[in-house]
C-alpha cells in the first residue's frame, strides 16, 4: 500500500536516524560551581551566550526539518493517475520497405503532381501506420543492407515519423529483398503475439545479399508468419525489355503464396492507397489491455524545501559567527576602558614633583667612592 505513495518507501526508515544519534550520543554535562558575582560587562556577555543557546535550538529545528525534507525527496512521493485501457489487436506487424536507388524514380503522382515512388510510399505508409491503433508495428529498411529503423511498438506515431524521415542511400542503392525480409522475420520469431505479419514492399529484383527471398519465405511458413507483398512499379521483370528498374512481381507473389499471405500489385498512388485500405481491413480479434499504471511524481517539492532550509541554516550560521566576532572584538575594548579608569591618565607625582625613573638622562649618579665609604 505504501508503495502506491512512495517510489522508494524503504528510504523512510532513515527518518529517525538523527533522533537515534541524539539518544546514543548524549551531550556532555559540565561541572556545577558555586555562585559568584561578576562585573556587568561579563554578565552581558553571559546573557549573549544564553541568546546563542536559544539560536542553537532554532538551528536544531531547521536541521531537523531539512533532514525530513531530504528523506521525503529520497523516498519519491508519487500519486497513481487514472488511465484508460489501451486497445490491442494481438498482432505484431513489421513493415519492410525498399529504399534502393530505383525508389527515386518519378513515375507516381501526389495530388496531381509528379512525385517520386518513395514520396508516394511515405505518404501512404505513414497514414497506414497511424491508423493501426492497437498493433505493435516495427519498421525494417533495406537496400544493399537491411537494418531495423524502429522496433515493434504501440507508438505508431513514432514509426510514422520514422517512415517520413527515410532517405534513399542510407542503406546503399542495390536491392537485397532476402536480407530485409529475413531481418523482419528474426524480430517476429521472438514475438509471442497470436498474429504475426510482415508487409514487404519492393520495386525491384533481388540483386544483393546472401540469401534469396524464396528461402526466407519458407522460413516464414515454418515460423507461422504471414508475409504480404507489394510489387511497386509500372513494369515487371521479364515483360519490360531492358528496364533496369522493373519489379520482380513473380518472386514477390511466390513469397506471399509460400507464407500464406497476399500479393498486391501497385502501379500508381491510387493503387497504393487501395492496398493500404485492403491491408487495414485485415483485422485480428480486438481486445483491451489492462490499464497502464501511470504515476505522477512529487519529489521535487520536498527537494526544493530542503534547498530553502539549507539556505536558511547557512544564513543562521553566518549570523551567529558575525555576532560572536562582534562580542569578541568588544571585550578587549571594554577591558582597556576599565583599566584606564582605574589607573588614571595623569602622570605620577612624588612630593609635588614628577617622579623620574632611575637611570633617566640628566639625573645625577651617586659617587661610587662615597657609597663605598
UniProtKB/TrEMBL annotation:
Matching InterPro entries: UPF0353/GerABKA_families (IPR050768), VWF_A (IPR002035), vWFA_dom_sf (IPR036465)
Domain (VWFA): residue spans on this chain: 92-282
Superkingdom, taxonomy of origin: Bacteria
A Pfam short name: VWA
Region (Disordered): 332-373
Protein name per its UniProtKB record: VWA domain-containing protein
Upper lineage: Bacteria, Pseudomonadati, Pseudomonadota, Alphaproteobacteria, Hyphomicrobiales
